[in-house]
């Protein structure tokens, strides 16, 4: 059982390394970074306590929001999905990503206190 | 159909009757005397002489020195002035044996003033002077002049003067139009909360209107179109002011009073009780004064009690009982019907003359009585009822010889009955209190004694239950019974006995302080909100570093993947975009530290629009490049 899991994972990693274009790998690295930041914030909250709660929420939401926006960007940029996003060019996707981030940062900074 | 009409009329009349007004303001004898005094002041000129002489004659009083007054009038008369002639003529008419010499010129002057061009007051003065001096005048000319005047000046005073003038003309003249003015004027009166009816021009105008309207109505023998309630409201307005600013105001009130007591149609009746409307055994007669507005008694009246009933029940104690007239006061022996003490509602009717207005009056009469205390029994009862109670009877107003002892095992009890002294009927006065007064400390505690269903009053004192009221202070207390009621003539304060009370766990009596109501209270210290516990700085710093560490990981990964900025074109829009983007991030930091949302939005709008335009350009260029590259 575990054997097949390991083989699936290793197969997946191989495929990933070979067939994903570089741009997407860059975004994936960014996603990993965001996820780790969010996880560490959550760990702090679990260990030390929720004071100040608004700052924790703001930071955590920032991570979650950034993750989601980056995932959207990745989906829209992926050439394999071109058929579904005919009207949205990669540049347009990036511009949307940028704008949404501005709004997210505004809210986050407002809430961070 | 006819039955229905009759029935509705009956109901309506009953409703109207129950809502009929009675005068709330009227002149008392002192007010009439004051009015007389104002009018009797020594006069300085012809006008004040006119007001005084004619005013006093309206009150039915003759001027003291008629000859001197007559001389004064004759010497101050100015035959070339219509006004002067008017005052002189009217005043001399009021005095007996005073004749003003009249010349042809005077007569011509007066007759010439009767025309459309003179003011209403001039017409009034000349017509009155002509009539008082016994000179002939052409009534029809006067009527047409008045009508022309009214149509030109439609104010209240003009019409009042026209009414006055018309009452001096011959009865054959066409006075119908002027008579109709009374109704129009009455419609112009202001109704103030249903009690007063007056002109906005003031008291004098209202009073003059009343005297003019009744003078004209009497003259043509037609009832004035004023309803009973309106007459009463006018009475309230005119007689509510008891001191008068000027001689003319006093004069107008006097003429209104005279016309209301002496006209052929409406005579308002003033009913007032002599003294308080209270009856008792020592004073069994209810005395009423029935007068007209000038406080003259109406001897021709017959006064009848239609019904007298208690305020609570509607059963009539007395019905259709007449008052007897004795020395100008109507009296009725109400105690003869043996009423119980309390308040009674009397409905009184005054008959005798069809002109009487407001002749149904509601009065509230109080019947008071003396109270006697019977069967005052004091006893000390053991709580466990093992020893029988010892009852001592005390007679009012003596005090019990022995004092009573009650400690925590015993209750002190008191029972008594309150009866009417004459009839023996049981009474329940409003206030029946039992007061215990500690003579040494001055402390007093008051309890209420309550009657049971058989009207027997009971009071029980349980020492353990009531020890908080007494502050657990033992000692000798003097027991008083206090009783009072509005219908009792003899309120009672009776020191019945002395009671020695013993309380358990008593505080030392020397530390008696007045209840600390008014001493300063302990100061409240404000507790500021405690700041929450923060984790130690080391931990925070460690975690900050930890949270920032994935950034390093990101850079390493990107380096490994070969992400680069080799495609960075140095076109102006690209640079502008990146600068704008950096500026936005910087703005976020500044927002966190210094600004509020509004300022941030302002700056963001500026920077954001620049960045957007630049970015748009940049991405377009990139897209073009990408499509070319394909």
Automatic annotation (TrEMBL), chain A:
Topological relation to the membrane, as annotated: Multi-pass membrane protein
UniProt keyword Membrane present: yes
- Keyword terms of this UniProt record: Endoplasmic reticulum, Membrane, Transmembrane, Transmembrane helix
Q: In which pathway does it act?
A: Protein modification; protein glycosylation
Give GO BP annotations, semicolon-separated: protein N-linked glycosylation
Q: Where in the cell is it found?
A: Endoplasmic reticulum membrane
Its main subcellular localisation, reduced to a broad class, is endoplasmic reticulum
Name the family.
Answer: Belongs to the DAD/OST2 family.
Q: How does it assemble?
A: Component of the oligosaccharyltransferase (OST) complex.
PANTHER family, sorted:
DOLICHYL-DIPHOSPHOOLIGOSACCHARIDE--PROTEIN GLYCOSYLTRANSFERASE SUBUNIT DAD1
The name of this protein is Dolichyl-diphosphooligosaccharide--protein glycosyltransferase subunit DAD1
From TrEMBL, chain B:
The way it spans or sits in the membrane comes to: Multi-pass membrane protein
Where does it live in the cell? Answer: Endoplasmic reticulum membrane
Any idea where the Ribophorin II second domain is? 269-367
Q: Which GO terms describe its biological process?
A: protein N-linked glycosylation
Pfam families in UniProt = Ribophorin_II, Ribophorin_II_2nd, Ribophorin_II_3rd, Ribophorin_II_C
Q: Signal sequence span per UniProt? A: 1-20
**Domain of life of the source:** Eukaryota
Residue intervals of the Ribophorin II third domain? 375-501
Q: Does the keyword Transmembrane apply?
A: yes
PANTHER family per UniProt:
DOLICHYL-DIPHOSPHOOLIGOSACCHARIDE--PROTEIN GLYCOSYLTRANSFERASE SUBUNIT 2 (PTHR12640:SF0), RIBOPHORIN II (PTHR12640)
Protein's name according to its UniProt entry: Dolichyl-diphosphooligosaccharide--protein glycosyltransferase subunit 2
Species annotation: Sinocyclocheilus anshuiensis
* Native organism taxonomy: Eukaryota, Metazoa, Chordata, Craniata, Vertebrata
Q: Which gene encodes it?
A: rpn2
């Amino acid at each position: 059982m575990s054997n097949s899991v390991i083989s699936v994972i290793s197969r997946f990693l191989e495929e990933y390394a070979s067939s994903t274009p570089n741009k997407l790998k860059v975004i994936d690295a960014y996603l990993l970074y965001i996820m780790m930041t969010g996880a560490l914030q959550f760990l702090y909250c679990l260990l030390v306590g929720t004071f100040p709660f608004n700052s924790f929420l703001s930071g955590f939401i920032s991570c979650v929001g950034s993750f989601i926006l980056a995932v959207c960007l990745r989906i829209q940029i992926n050439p394999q999905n071109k058929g579904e996003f005919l009207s949205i060019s990669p540049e347009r996707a990036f511009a949307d990503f940028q704008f949404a981030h501005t709004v997210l940062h505004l809210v986050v900074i407002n809430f961070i206190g | 159909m006819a039955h229905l009409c009759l029935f509705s009329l009956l109901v309506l009349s009953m409703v109207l009757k129950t809502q009929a007004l009675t005068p709330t303001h009227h002149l008392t004898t002192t007010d009439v005397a004051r009015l007389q005094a104002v009018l009797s002041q020594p006069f300085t000129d012809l006008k004040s002489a006119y007001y005084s002489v004619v005013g006093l004659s309206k009150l039915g009083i003759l001027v003291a020195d008629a000859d001197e007054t007559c001389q004064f009038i004759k010497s101050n008369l100015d035959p070339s002035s219509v006004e002067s002639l008017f005052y002189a003529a009217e005043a001399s008419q009021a005095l007996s044996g005073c004749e003003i010499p009249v010349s042809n010129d005077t007569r011509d002057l007066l007759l010439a003033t009767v025309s459309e061009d003179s003011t209403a007051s001039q017409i009034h003065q000349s017509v009155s002077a002509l009539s008082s001096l016994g000179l002939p005048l052409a009534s029809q000319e006067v009527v047409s002049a008045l009508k022309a005047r009214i149509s030109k000046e439609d104010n209240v005073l003009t019409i009042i003067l026209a009414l006055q003038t018309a009452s001096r003309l011959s009865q054959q003249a066409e006075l119908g139009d002027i008579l109709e003015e009374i109704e129009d004027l009455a419609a112009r009166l202001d109704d103030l909360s249903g009690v007063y009816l007056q002109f906005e021009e003031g008291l004098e105008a209202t009073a003059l209107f009343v005297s003019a309207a009744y003078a004209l109505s009497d003259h043509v023998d037609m009832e004035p179109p004023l309803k009973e309630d309106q007459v009463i409201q006018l009475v309230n307005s005119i007689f509510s002011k008891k001191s008068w600013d000027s001689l003319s105001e006093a004069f107008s009130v006097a003429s209104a009073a005279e016309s209301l007591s002496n006209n052929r149609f409406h005579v308002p009746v003033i009913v007032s009780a002599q003294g308080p409307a209270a009856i008792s055994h020592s004073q069994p007669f209810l005395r009423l004064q029935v007068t007209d507005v000038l406080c003259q008694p109406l001897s021709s009246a017959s006064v009848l009690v239609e019904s007298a009933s208690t305020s609570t029940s509607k059963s009539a104690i007395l019905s259709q009982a007449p008052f007897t007239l004795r020395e100008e006061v109507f009296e009725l022996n109400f105690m003869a019907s043996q009423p119980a003490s309390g308040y009674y509602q009397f409905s009184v009717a005054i008959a005798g003359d069809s002109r009487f207005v407001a002749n149904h009056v509601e009065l509230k009469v109080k019947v008071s009585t003396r109270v006697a205390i019977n069967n005052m029994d004091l006893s000390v009862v053991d709580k466990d009822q093992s020893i029988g109670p010892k009852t001592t009877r005390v007679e009012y107003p003596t005090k019990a010889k022995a004092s009573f002892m009650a400690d925590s095992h015993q209750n002190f009890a008191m029972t008594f009955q309150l009866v009417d002294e004459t009839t023996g009927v049981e009474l329940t006065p409003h206030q029946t209190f039992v007061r215990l007064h500690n003579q040494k400390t001055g402390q007093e505690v008051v309890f209420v004694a309550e009657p049971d269903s058989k009207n027997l009053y009971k009071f029980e004192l349980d020492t353990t239950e009531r020890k908080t009221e007494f502050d657990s202070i033992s000692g000798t207390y003097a027991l008083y019974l206090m009783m009072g009621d509005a219908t009792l003539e003899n309120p009672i304060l009776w020191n019945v006995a002395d009671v020695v009370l013993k309380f358990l766990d008593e505080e030392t009596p020397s530390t008696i302080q007045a209840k600390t109501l008014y001493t300063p209270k302990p100061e409240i210290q404000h507790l500021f909100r405690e700041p929450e516990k923060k984790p130690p700085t080391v931990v925070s710093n460690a975690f900050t570093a930890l949270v920032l560490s994935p950034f390093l990981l990101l850079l390493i990964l990107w380096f490994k993947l070969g992400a680069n900025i080799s495609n960075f074109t140095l076109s102006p829009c690209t640079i502008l975009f990146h600068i704008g983007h950096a500026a936005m991030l910087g703005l976020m930091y500044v927002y966190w530290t210094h600004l509020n949302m509004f300022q941030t939005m302002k700056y963001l709008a500026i920077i954001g629009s620049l960045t957007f335009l630049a970015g748009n350009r940049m991405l377009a260029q990139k897209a073009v490049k990408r499509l070319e590259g394909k």
